[in-house]
Structures are given as structure tokens and as C-alpha cells.
Amino acid sequence: MANQSLDVMVNEHYGSKGLLGRVLTAVRDTGIVLDEVCSDDFSPVSEFHIGGRRSTIDLANTAQLSGDNKVLDIGSGLGGPARTLVEQFGVQVDGVDLTHEFCLVANELTRITGLSDQAVFSQGDALSLPVDYSNKYDVVWTQQSCMNIEDKQQMFIEVCRVLKTGGTFVFQEVFAGDQDGPILLPVPWAREADMSFLWSPDAIRQSILNAGFVECVWKNVTSYYLEEYRLLAEKTGNSVEPPIMGVHLILGDQAGLMRKNVVRNLSQGFISVYQGVFKK
Length: 280
Hints:
Elements: H1 4-14, H2 19-29, H3 43-46, H4 52-63, E1 70-74, H5 80-89, E2 92-97, H6 100-112, E3 119-123, E4 137-143, H7 152-162, E5 163-176, H8 201-210, E6 214-220, H9 222-236, H10 248-251, H11 255-267, E7 271-279
Parallel strand pairs: 1-2, 1-4, 2-3, 4-5
Antiparallel strand pairs: 5-7, 6-7
Helix pairs in contact: 4-5, 7-8, 9-11
């Protein structure tokens, strides 16, 4: 069952009012004509996971996505990864996110970029997806949405239910690292410890296998994206020349500190980043 108090906390953490206006103002402030905007222009804010747009494309190539795939993106955020998958791989995407404000913005940015026929977003719970999603999707995709989910086993059961036989579960996630100890807070997914649920890689892998999946790809990509993210964190926290477009539009003044804490947590082994591809 969903944890209603946690659901409220997640919506409050991510879903500040006026987000669409802030994003569109930032686009104009960068000198981009709104009628000529492309999806990548929104990437600094809409692909705020580790590795950004590059990691989305890397992951899709690893999973061998193709144009006939029907994809469910769980934790779809502002729709950045979904739009990248549409543009680069020709897939159809349904996005589901717990945060109402994210879904509103995702649909509008997708309309502006002319991709509404191939990607649509709705509010929903990863632990209780719609009944009519059963056996509907070729691919279930998620990038860094599990950190706020306590009952991960239930999520993996739901993923298995909505996938067609032979379908693919594709993810990039932040897990616990190999060093014990509390993570440095705040981080982009949590200001307080009671919003962060990080399992060890071994526990996650076993839980996915227990849900009925077969492993195809399982790799630690922490070192691959760390230096790039370190530079991004420095830019985000630059008080002299702050970025116009970026995750601060969602997370506010603490965005730079949050990203720097991610770098510290990764560097000290408190957290890790993995990509996985599993078959039903």
C-alpha cells in the first residue's frame, strides 16, 4: 500500500508551484525563441539525473531500444528522458509520476516541442499502476526514481505485471555504496533522511530477480559519470554566475549544495550509481 504521508512529502519536495513559468522564463532568458525550442533546450532542468541526457542515450543504447517499443517511464519527472527516447529512438512513451506539478509541466513542454503524439504523462503511483496496464508495455524505464520508494519489492512486482512476456526492465538508480554510514544531506531527492530509501546493489538485484526477471546487464557506472557531475555541481552552486536553466528551478537555493553532497557521497562510497537491463 502507498504511504500517504510520504506521497505528500514527495509532492512538496519536487512540486513547487509556478515551475512551468520559471522554466519558460529561463528559456527566454537564454535567448531561445520559444517557437523554435527543441527538447534538448530543456535538458538542464528536465534531465537532472546523474549523467543527464548522455546517460539517457547510453542506457537506451545498452537496452537496444527500437522504434516499435511501447515504453512506460516510471518517475517520468519533467519528461526529459521520455522526449529524448522519442527523438532518438522513435518509441512511444507513457510517463507516470507521483508529483502532480511534474506531470503538468511535462505535458506542456512536450506540447511545445511537438512530441505530444508520442509521449504523454499522468500522475500515478509506481506501487499501484492502473489495472489496464497489465501486459501492455515492451519496456519499463526508470531513471533515479527508486530513492523515494520504500517498498521497492512492490514496485518490481508492478513492473513485471505491466510488461509483456519477453519485455525489458531498464533502469539507472542510486543505491547505497560500499561504505556504511548516513549519507550527507540534503541531496536532490531528500532534504531529510526520512525521504531517502537506499538499498544495497545486492539487495536490489536479488529483489528484481525475485520478482521474476532474468538479468541481462548489471553495471556500476559511478566512476563513468562522477567527474562530469562534479563539474555540473560546481556550476550549479556558482553564486557569481549561476546557470539560467537548471535544477535550481525545481529545488531552489539549495540545489548547488544538494549536488555537491551527491559528489561527496559518491566519492566517499556512501552511494553508488548502477544501470541495469532485465528481461521478463
